[in-house]
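Researcher: Here's a chain I'd like modeled. Treat it as a single chain, no partners, no ligands.
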Amino acid sequence: MKETLTFDFCKMSIYDNYVVVVMNEGVNITPDHNSILVEVTENYFLDKPFVYITHRINSYSVDPKIYFETSKIENLKGFAVVSKNYKAKVNAEIEKMFFNKPFETFTKMEDAFTWADHLVKKTK
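Model: Modeled as a single isolated chain. Structure tokens:
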């Protein structure tokens, strides 16, 4: 891991090929939050492919329209949701419809890491 960033709504862990995000309990993710994601990715992944992994430990809501903007991040190659919670997985399936890049759900973090590394290597 390169670095961990803490914001008022989440914690982000930056790795070579992906960023792992844990949102805080009860947060409603809006386009304003997305602008922070864009800023972080520009700082850590400038001209380098990466995958966004959200570890859904806490309960929070996402405005699905946010995925239209997130999809525009050119070097973002995929999006993964990691959760053992059935409701979080169902929500992820709905969110997937708003995202036009690879989007997968996983139960284990290690599986998401493997998928992300493969996706990044495939696009280099």
